[in-house]
Amino acid sequence: MNRSHMLLIAIVFMLASTAASAQISAPVYVPFAFTANHQHLPAGVYKVELLSDRFVAFVDSQTGKTERIVMVRPQAGPHIESIGGLVFASYGSRYVLREVRMTGSSMHSELAIQPKPEPLNAKNQTGSTFEISMR
Asked: Which of 10, 18, 115, 119 sits at a 20 to 30 Å CA gap from 3?
């Protein structure tokens, strides 16, 4: 095998490794409808796919259809070794996706479009934040 073949094999291997790392995905069950970057998503089982450091796709696990692609802002953080998750804020019966944490990456991404916090009133006494784990 000559040097050009070895170089070609090395380049193909590097490209394959890069493509594989960009294909990080995880299943998650979200038991309620929610919004992400002002886009509505129904309750359901999704495969959350990291498309790039700026975009995450929500794919319906039953149909395989990409329901939404949302823009995120990557935040520096430690490598997530075990369980990723989706961080939501709840405002009464309304849920807003605030952050995506992908296992196998250092992806701690806030959604690019953050809604204004809602004022608490008689109908809306919560305003809590919680996380749903992805496996």
From this structure: 18
